[in-house]
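ok so for the tutorial part 2 we go from a plain amino acid sequence to predicted C-alpha cells. step 1 is just haveing the sequence, like this:
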Amino acid sequence: MKNKNFIIYFIVTLVFIFTIIIVNYIYQTKLNYIKVSQKILFQEASSLFNNVVTTRLWASKHGGIYVKAHEGIKPNPYLEDNHTYTKNNELLIKVNPAWMTRQLSELSNEVNKNYYFKITSLNPKNPNNKADLFEKKALEFLDKNRNEDFYTKLNDKAYDLLGVLRVDESCLSCHKTQNYKVGDTMGGLRVSIPTNVYSQNVELITSKTNILYVITFFTSIVFIFIISYTINSIYTRERNILRLNKTLERKVKNRTKELVEANKKLLKISTSDFLTNIPNRRYFFDMGSKSFNLAKRENQKLCVVCIDIDFFKKVNDTYGHQIGDEVLKYVSGSLENSIRKSDILARTGGEEFMIILNSTDSQGALNLSEKIREFFNKNNFITENLNIPVTISIGISQIKSNDESLDTIIARADKALYASKENGRNQVSVNL
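step 2 — the prediction. this is what the C-alpha cells look like for a chain of 432 residues:
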C-alpha cells in the first residue's frame, strides 16, 4: 500500500511539475505572439512615418518647393518668403517641409479615415500644430531621452506612434526665429493606425490559450490514470503550438519582405529623374565617385562628358514646356542608346547631361561624342505637327594622375563645354 501511495504521490508530483511547465510555456508563447503582433504594428507605423519623413527630407534638402497657385491653396502665413513669381508673372506658392508634412497628413486622413497623421510641436508656429495630451507627453519624453526616436501607445482603438523630428541645418532657415539649434527636438509626426486586426488576433490567441490551459489540466488529471493517453495529448498540444509559431513567423517574414520591396522602390525613386527616367544628379555623383576611386586604384582610363542642349530655352519659349519635356525625353533616350551598360548617364540639370565613360581615354570619348553630336545634327525631333532641330554642345575631360576627386574632372569638362558653346555650339571640345 505504501509503495502504491508513494507511486501515486510521485506520479502526481511529476504531473503537477510537468503541468506547471506546460502552462508556463503556453503563457510565454502567448506573450511572444502578442509582442510580435505589437512589433508588426510598430513596423507598419514606423514605415508610414519614414515614408513621410523621406518626402520631408527631400523637400528640406531643396529648401522647400514651389507650386503653382490654384484654388484651395494660399501662401503660408506662418512662413517668411512664402511666395514668388515666374517670368510670366504667375504666382508660385512656397511649400516648406513642415507645411508639406501637414498637407500630406491631412490628405492621408481624408483618404483613409482609419489612419491618422499629424505634425505637431510644443512650440509651433502654426496653432493647428499644437500638441494634444498624448503628443505633449511623447515630445517631452523624446526631448529628455535623445537616444529614443519614437514614443508609442497602444489602446483599444488605435496604435499611436510619434516619431521625433529634430533640427538639422536645412531646418534653420524657416525656424530661425524660434532659437532652435541643430539637434534640438523641433516637433514630431504622429501616426495612428487601427488595431482591430491586432485586437482580433489577441482575442484569438487568448481564447486558444485558455482552451489549452483547460486541456492541459484535464490531460494532467487523466494522465494519472492513463499515462499513455496523457503523453500523446501533450505531444498534440506541442504540435499545435509549434504550428502557431510557424504561422506567426511566416507572417513576419512576409511583412519584412514587403518592407524590403518598399525600400527598394523608394531608393529607385530617389535616384531616378522623374521626367526622363534616367539616373539623376545624386545617383551620378554616388556612382561616379566609386568609378573615379576604382580608376585611380587600378590606374585605368576614365572620361567625363558634359552635354548641353543648344538653345533649349528657345524651344520652351517657342513650343511650350510640354514640348520641351518631350525633347528632354528624346535626348535622354538617344544618349542612353548610344553608351555602354558599364557607362553612367544622368540628367544633372535642366537641359544638362553627364556621362562617365569607364576604361575610355580622351580619343575614345571624342569619337563617341562626335558620333552622338552628329546623330542629333542629322535627326530632328519630330512629332505629328512639329519638326524641331535639336543640336548639342559637348565638353570632354580625361582623368589625370593628380586628380583628387571626380569634381576636378567635371570642372575641366565643364570648361570644355563652355568653350564649345562660346565657339558657336553644336561641337565637341576636349580639355585635357
